[in-house]
Design a protein that fits this description.
- By secondary structure, the protein is an alpha/beta fold.
- About 40% of the residues lie in helices and about 20% in strands.
- β7, α7 (about 210-220) and β8 (about 225) form a beta-alpha-beta unit.
- The protein starts with a strand and ends with a helix.
């Protein structure tokens, strides 16, 4: 079997309103779809998401790297030799890669390769990843800063998550003052009991002293983790914070490759890792990272991409949970429209879990009419 073509599609949909995280504003959803075609008729798909980073340049740069760089590396190669292909893509881009855009582009190609492998074998990615369990807890990812939103609004949002069956919830912090964020957390804890897990995501907004101050203020609220309290490269501050608080520290959505996670783990900077399969280097590298974490007794809570991470997190023994956005949420709506399948990742179970897709490969079924509608 040989790869005979690579095709890409860049999509964009603006959000109905601008939302804010710890560091910046988010105005719309980008998607890059990558399609690999083989000489035996099997096609593999992947998708990379963006949020109009750098005025929308991010996804366009990834598209260029795939079409002008990686395509020439993988054409006429056997996709079953995924280790060799990953190595050649990584070494072939090392002068302008090792992190960032090049690794995101490699991720797109590698994920599509695994989709081909699963379809060739007639097995779902969940089983290829290890098949440890058939469902994984999902947490509601929300609590963004929205202009004009009140404390009552975030209280109602969280109550809605509980009504829909969630046992775990994450909100954003870091954009407001510690006093204001504490008020948000206090309001939430007054409407949910301690059996509901509450996580907070600072989006790399703080410096070390601010992160330590926040952790000391919030330990009484039974916080399950503080996510990205400081920039991921600031290992010294992460290590100091971890030594100063009982709240677990979750990091990794902006880290790349097994080498980056090796450094985080060896430094003692992290309690929970959050690798994103569309950033770290694809499924090949994601599994290496997960197994490295397992050897150090560290759980994996992947960032976003529920359509793929449900299978991966359930496939490994140290998968903790999966980040979830509902199909009608503006962060998820374009993704949901583009991918008719897998339906398993669109709705949580009564137990608050996502059930793994069972179709061969990733189980992604694309609505190409929607692709054409939103293609740029």
């Amino acid at each position: 079997m040989k790869i005979i073509d690579i095709d890409t599609s860049v999509l964009f949909e603006p959000f109905p309103k601008t939302i804010y995280s710890g560091r910046g504003k988010v105005s719309g959803r980008d998607i890059l779809i990558t399609q690999l075609t083989t000489d035996v008729g099997i096609k593999g798909y992947s998708f990379i998401t963006g949020l109009q980073v750098a005025n929308g340049a991010e996804i366009k740069v990834l598209d260029l790297i795939i079409r002008e760089g990686l395509k020439g590396i993988v054409l006429a190669k056997d996709p079953l030799c995924y280790e060799k292909l990953w190595y050649e893509m990584y070494r072939g881009t090392v002068r302008f890669g090792r992190r960032g855009a090049a690794l995101r582009a490699i991720s797109a190609v590698d994920i599509a390769i695994w989709d081909i492998i699963g379809k060739k074998a007639g097995l779902p990615i969940w089983q290829l990843a290890g098949g440890f369990k058939e469902s994984i807890p999902a947490y509601a990812s929300g609590g963004h800063y929205i202009k004009g939103a009140t404390l009552d609004d975030i209280s109602l949002e969280v109550q809605d998550y509980i009504k829909n069956g969630f046992k775990e919830i994450k909100i954003r912090v870091g954009r407001a003052s510690l006093k204001e964020d504490t008020e948000r957390i206090d309001v939430i804890r007054n409407v949910i009991d301690d059996e509901i897990k509450l996580m907070v995501d600072a989006g790399e907004a703080w410096d070390g002293p601010t992160a330590i101050a926040a952790a000391k203020m919030w330990e009484k609220y039974n916080i399950s983790w503080i996510e990205e309290p400081v920039p991921t490269d600031d290992l010294d501050s992460l290590c100091l914070l971890k030594s100063k608080t009982s709240i677990p520290i979750a990091v990794g959505e902006n880290e790349y490759t097994r080498y980056g996670f090796r450094d985080l783990i060896q430094a003692g900077a992290v309690s929970i890792i959050q690798p994103d399969v569309t950033r770290v280097g694809g499924i090949s590298e994601w599994l290496k990272i997960a197994h490295l974490a397992s050897a150090h007794g560290i759980k994996v809570a992947p960032h976003g991409i529920q359509e793929i991470h449900t299978s991966l997190a359930a496939g490994i023994e140290n998968g903790l949970n999966v980040e979830y956005a509902s199909p009608d949420h503006y962060m998820q709506s374009l993704i949901d429209k583009v991918f008719k399948e897998p339906v398993n990742t669109k709705q949580i179970s009564p137990a608050g879990n996502l059930v793994v897709p069972q179709s061969p490969g990733l189980g992604l079924e694309i609505d190409w009419d929607i692709v054409e509608k939103y293609k740029i």
